[in-house]
Structure formats: C-alpha cells, structure tokens
Write a structure and sequence with these properties.
Helix content is 78%, strand content 0%.
Length: 328
C-alpha cells in the first residue's frame, strides 16, 4: 500500500514537471523573464501566447489524456482483454463518423459534437461487443470485430467527406488528431463530461474490479453483471467521445497507458490503477503534444501522427508479450 502511494506521488511529480515543460517550451521561445511577465500581464506578447495558445492546448491535452486512458482502462477491464482499446476496436472511428454526420446535419454547433460523438462511440462499442459475443466472445473475435467495424466507420467518414466537401478541411484535421486551434469554448462541454466520467469511475471502481473476475464469479458475489457491464461501456463511450469531440481520432493512448499502469501497479486495486491512469495519461499526452509542436519548429507535427508512430510498435510488442506470457 505504501509503495503504491509513493508511485502515485512520483506520477504526480512527473505531471507537474510535464505541465511546466509544456508551458515553457513551444514554437516560440520564451525566456524565464518573458514567461513570468506573461503570467502576470495578459496584454504582453508572452501573455497572449500563454493565454491564447499554450494554456488551452495544455488543458486540452491533459483532459484528452485522462479521457482516452480511462476509456481504454475500462474497456480492457470489462472485456478482460489487454489488447482492447478505443482505437483498436473502432470506438474512436465510430465517434468520428457520428461527429462527421453532425457536421453535415448541424454545422457549427459546438454542443452537438460531444453528443454525436458519444452516440457514435456507444453504438460502436455495443455493436462490436454483440458481434464478438455471437461469435464466441473470445479475445481474438473482439479484436477482429473491432477492426472490421473500424474499417466500416472510416469508410463512412470518407464517404461523407466525398459527398459533402465543405467538411473536408475540418475532417482532415479531425482524422489526424491534434490540439491546434483549440479554445476554451470548445473544451468546456468536454471538460464537464470527462470530469463526471472520471468521478464515476473512481466511485464505482470496486464494481469494475469484481466485473473483471468474470461473469459467473461476479454473479456469485451478488453483482448485477448485465447492468454494470452496460454502465461501464456507457462510461467508456462517454469519456472517449468527449475527447474525440475536440481532439479528433488520436489513437493508442487507451492502449499504451492502461497497460503501463498494470505493469507499474500489478497488484493494486482498480481505484489506485484509475488514479494512476489519470496521472500517467495526462502526462503522456501533454508531453507528446509539447514534443510534436516543438520538435520541428516552426513546423508542427500533429500529435496524432506521433502517437501512431509510438502506438503501432507498442501494439505489436503487446501481441508478442501476451503470447509469450500465455506459453509461460
């Protein structure tokens, strides 16, 4: 218990350093004096850079990291499958397709984006789970079903952009994933949803822990399996869609972070692992965003591309790791 608290404290320190690093580093170099001036004088050049660009972008990356990490953590726990994540089983793409529909049907409506993304994520996760259950509910069928649905949703996005070229510019950035141009007006609905979702997970982490033991064991312990499984799937959809609504289709965060958390906290309860996912997810994505917008300055590499470069090899490594673990 004490060891886990120390680890959580270290993750918190890493998050603080990441926040400071993100504020300090960017395409425009700020000296220490300029940074201090910008914090206290909003009308100065450094103040405008911090207020208009870096603070909103930092906030966006932190909350997206929290949402995607917790969504992946919930999905992996509910399905007892370490290979599952919002991007791998198509939830991101489902949210993206419904968001594209929203852009076509109700353009320029910021509050419609989180709702449509939520409906898309929920539809996709239930659809994938239903297919996997009908075909045996194995870990492999879940992944294969997700890949098929992911391709279907991406095809739907491509169809909409072909039929309605007015949304091409917005969808191009959306499909890559990133935080360029994000504002607090865009973030406000998502922040509320993510905060509620994270709170609910921490509140009901014990039920998730029991659910991961398996349906029969959970039933024997008095848990209403069907209700709680749907509850957590809705919660995962809510978190994922809130992030997708402003960050676009950033993949692999929900795969990488929960797996790292289980490696760091192998014997911890779901509540501790949830807190660790919040801290590590926010640090990971904000750090990746800072590096991606600074590494090739004055040009910017969207963070979604950087995450893809990191996530694809990690996914392949995870496949071999799980196979080796089973044989051992």
């Amino acid at each position: 218990m004490a060891k886990n608290k120390i680890k959580l404290f270290l993750l918190f320190i890493i998050l603080i350093f990441t926040i400071v690093f993100s504020i300090y580093i960017g395409s425009v170099y700020l000296t220490k004096d300029e940074l201090i001036l910008g914090l206290f004088n909003k009308e100065s050049l450094s103040g405008q850079i911090l207020r208009v660009v870096r603070f909103p972008r930092l906030t966006a990356s932190i909350f997206a990291g929290i949402a995607l990490s917790l969504s992946g953590f919930i999905i992996q726990s509910v399905f007892a499958n370490p290979l599952a994540s919002p991007s791998v089983i198509g939830i991101n793409s489902g949210a993206g397709f419904f968001t594209a529909l929203s852009m076509v049907i109700i353009p320029n409506n910021l509050f419609a984006l989180p709702l449509s993304a939520f409906l898309g994520a929920l539809f996709t996760i239930v659809f994938v789970f239903s297919i996997a259950k009908l075909t045996g509910a194995s870990k492999l069928t879940l992944i294969l079903s997700g890949i098929a649905v992911n391709s279907l949703m991406n095809a739907g996005i491509s169809t909409l952009t072909n039929w309605f070229p007015d949304i091409i510019i917005g969808m191009r950035d959306f499909q890559i994933g990133g935080f360029s141009g994000v504002t607090y007006n865009t973030l406000f609905p998502a922040i509320i949803i993510i905060s509620i979702g994270a709170s609910l997970l921490l509140l009901f982490s014990k039920e998730l822990e029991i659910l991961e033991l398996g349906g029969e064991i959970a039933l024997s312990l008095g848990l209403k399996v069907s209700f709680w499984r749907m509850f957590f799937l809705v919660l995962a959809s809510m978190l994922c869609s809130a992030a997708v609504s402003y960050s676009g289709l950033i993949g692999f965060v929900g795969l990488i972070v929960p797996h790292c958390v289980r490696l760091i906290f192998p014997d911890a309860g779901k509540r501790t692992q949830s807190i660790a996912s919040i801290l590590l997810g926010s640090s990971f994505l904000s750090l990746c965003d800072t590096v991606s917008r600074s590494l090739f300055s004055p040009y910017e590499l969207p963070v979604g591309i950087m995450i893809a470069f990191l996530g694809a090899p990690f996914f392949l490594w995870l496949i071999f790791y799980e196979r080796k673990r089973k044989h051992d």
